[in-house]
Amino acid sequence: MEKRNANSISAQENRKLNRHLMICKWCKMYNEKLAVLDKIFEKAFSEKEAEINESEIQDFKNKMFDKLNF
Description:
Elements: H1 2-5, H2 11-23, H3 25-69
Helix pairs in contact: 2-3
């Protein structure tokens, strides 16, 4: 399942995994939990990048104002 999430799974492996998930309730539940965790991590990292970018922009502005005012 991690391999599928990393987009490094072959078509044959994907078919086998799908068949297995239809049968195995434990792996199906695990797969659902992975999907939830992936969404949480994507959201957390995208928000963090936005914060970092905003602070970097503000730091740049402050440095420019300091240089212009001598």
